Amino acid sequence: MHHAKSLAALFIALTAVGGCSSPTHDEGLTATASSASSFTPGVPGGVDIQTVQVTAVITAIDQQRRTFTLQDDQGNRQTFDAVPEMRNFSQLKVGDRVNAVVTHERVVRLREPNATSTDGVAGVVATAPEGSRPGMLVAGTKEITAVVKAIDTTQHTATLQFPDGSSKVVRVRPDIELKPSYLNKQVVISLTSAMAISVEAP
């Protein structure tokens, strides 16, 4: 018997799978993953993007319980609850193809000391209009600011202190020259996650 999970759990599942596992018939859906990085040599910071995609077909629908079961091309199946924000659930039909794409983007940049922090979280949820095919877009951004408290030119690492007082030693890219002038500068980390779900008729 398959465990019903909320549609939000699909977001978590896609994040965790990362395309590196081969689930069995009852362990979940197969996902494919890709990643890309962009940076300027010698300049601290850069952009990392990870994308995970799942495509599956609806094999069962329970209108009363608002659940639907997906099966991928490998035969793996998983059942999900349709969250209240998922409009037009009644229009789902067995045989419909569901496409889900999760994208994570991390942008890191260096900023001068004492610059105004913009730490915070923002998000948006968009659903399909009434009468159209079911679908959903969920996106959120979080910004974290840390301060460079120490550098180690031997190990080529930097110690970052976060707003809650915790510290973390991070490895610095080999092409970056660790300069004393980096001390007390701010490292701004912007994390953006987005999930898009669309449903297509066979």
UniProtKB/TrEMBL annotation:
Top-level taxon? Bacteria
Per its record, how is this protein called by name?
A: DUF5666 domain-containing protein
Organism expressing this protein natively:
Metapseudomonas resinovorans NBRC 106553
